[in-house]
Design goal:
Blueprint: E1 6-7, H1 9-13, E2 16-17, E3 20-25, E4 28-31, H2 33-38, H3 46-50, E5 69-71, E6 78-80, E7 114-118, E8 122-129, E9 134-141, H4 146-153, E10 163-167, E11 170-171, H5 187-192, H6 197-200, E12 203-208
Keywords: Cell projection, Cytoplasm, Cytoskeleton, Heme, Iron, Metal-binding
Family: Belongs to the cytochrome b5 family.
Subcellular location: Cytoplasm, Cytoskeleton, Cilium axoneme
């Protein structure tokens, strides 16, 4: 079974408001809007809101998947390390009567907020509609299949499924990724050679099949 939906860092960054707040960490993407609504007005939301739409992997220990810890210089005890300030579900440094720990799993361990995976590497491609001569640049996740890339392209052409997708005149396997279809990622070469990615990125040509499939 393929993993859940992939997102680009750019897509995550668009969800950066109180009413629509996403973050990414340790390779996954989380929608914390419900958490923000639940604790609306609480000062403990401040560090989370400040990082809305960003990657916060540096908050976590990649081995334990938990918040980073340190030795508190005053108590000599191991405590969570939160340099931006304590946030929701992080216990106070000292015992307090106004803090309860009956919330179950802390939000960073609660899978209900998970919406997908963060792409390890994104890349740009050009999609050329040979019927209309329309050309569209598209940032995609390297892990996505052509069928998933087609879903991204639907905003520009709702009949995208009515076309045969080809690269170098060869039909593409829509169940495979770009790399698996023999379309290499050349972003690093473009950068090293100071080439304009928008002009030289790999292109996919769409050939109309004479039907009007709409997804």
């Amino acid at each position: 079974m393929r993993p859940t939906k992939y997102f680009t860092p750019t897509e995550v960054s668009l969800h950066n408001t109180h009413g629509d707040l996403w973050v990414s960490y340790l390779g996954k993407v989380y929608d914390l809007t419900q958490l923000v609504n639940e604790f609306k007005g609480d000062v403990l939301l401040k560090p989370i809101i400040e990082c809305a739409g960003k990657d916060i992997s540096h908050w976590f220990d990649p081995k334990t998947k938990d918040i980073l810890t340190h030795i508190d210089p005053l108590s000599g005890c191991v405590k969570y390390y939160t340099p931006r300030g304590r946030f929701v579900h992080v216990p106070p440094p000292c015992p307090r009567t106004d803090w309860t720990n009956d919330f179950g799993r802390p939000w960073w361990r609660d899978t209900q907020y998970e919406v997908g995976l963060l792409s390890v590497k994104t890349r740009w491609i050009r999609i050329i509609n040979t019927l209309t001569s329309q050309e569209q640049g598209l940032e995609v996740c390297s892990e996505e299949t052509l069928n998933e890339i087609l879903q991204r392209y639907l905003r520009y052409n709702s009949h995208a499924a009515s076309y045969t997708w080809k690269h170098d005149c060869v039909n593409l396997d829509m169940s495979r990724t770009l790399e698996e279809n023999g379309i290499p990622d050349e972003d690093e070469d473009f950068y090293n050679r100071r080439m304009d990615r928008d002009l030289f990125s790999q292109s996919i040509c769409l050939y109309f099949n004479d039907d009007l499939t709409e997804l």
